[in-house]
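Title: Request for sanity check on DNA-binding protein prediction

Description:
We are preparing a figure and want to confirm that the structure record we downloaded matches what your pipeline produces today. Could someone re-run it with the sequence below and paste the raw structure tokens into this thread? We only need the token string, no images.
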Amino acid sequence: MDTSRIGRRIAYWRDRRSLTQTEFGRLMGQTKRWVQDLEGGKRQRDPRLSVLVRAAEILRIPLEQLLSDRAPEPPAGSAPPTDVLGVVDALFKSPNAVDPPPLAVLQRRLDYCCEAFQACHYSTLGRELPELVVGATKAAHHAPVGRQSEAQAVLSRVYQLVTSYLHKYGEATAIQAALAADRALAAAERSGDPVHIGAASRRVAKGLVYQQRPQTAVEFATSAARRLAGDLSGRGPLGLSTLGMLYLSAAMAASSEDRTTARVRAATGFLDQAEDVADRQGADLNEDWTMFGPTNVGLHRVDMLIRFEDGWSALEAADDLDEVAVHRMTRERQAGHHVAMARASLLTRQKDDAVTELLAADELAPEEVEGRPDAVNLVKDVVGRMPNPGGQLRELAQRCGLRA
């Protein structure tokens, strides 16, 4: 194997994706020097296959593209959904010299997109986010000295939203989501605002879970919570919501591995810390688009038990939720709870209840069910458990692209 040619191909595609050696190294879990050696053909005589597979994923090219100068057709299903590609491509566009939109205009567009996300209008985000990413990047590059902090805060929030959007599509966009989260945190640090730093940190933590590093995610989220607790507590409900969401992120990360007594205890402890913060806040509030409060903590407690495959305990925890308060949550949280209850019902062999919950989620927010890989796989599992799926379930499966 000609190592030097592989290194040159990696350098070529890294440059095409507008990734610096430092950014590429971070996504690979390596240093800038490691990347320099790899691209120079000095890492080893035959780079490990796992290294090349990871590089191909980050560069969004087929593995064969690193092994040959020919451009093979990508395998079917290897690319993210079509309406997501524009958002992914926007992450790799360099800002041109055209005057950026005013920050006030960008903030209004950002608020609109955040509302669309909470309403599960993901197709709207697919249309709006590319221009917003490019515009916010230009604004940050060209902001006058006195407005740099504000511009970086807007840019961070845009990247945070992009991260949350890409996480909806699971493994297909996990690498790009990690890149967006890293940029969100970098912009937040430049803004100097602890709220944005905390909010970006939880996106980074979730990205670490997708990269199969849940313990690192726990440590990252809890470290950020400790570092920022004082500043966030002094910011009222906005800061408390940010702090509470960091503890919820730690709980979800801790419950991303197989169930053990220690992991259950750790995840429960993080939820209890989030509950303490929610009690201090006093109500469910949509500060910084979090919908944080006692109800959201309860929803995450249900999710945590489902992740540990404890369906019966999840159903019991759901019974403790205030039904009226749940209906006051955003459509995204409500639909997510219906999907979670479908999973709990399937775990407890209550197949009819699982169908009811899935249909309720789809009626409330079709894009939360029909366009998300995790939800589609759940529909597939439910259909597979039903000896004779009913008409509504069959129709849902067909809308998800499944046979029923």
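Thanks, this matches our download. The radius of gyration is 22 Å.
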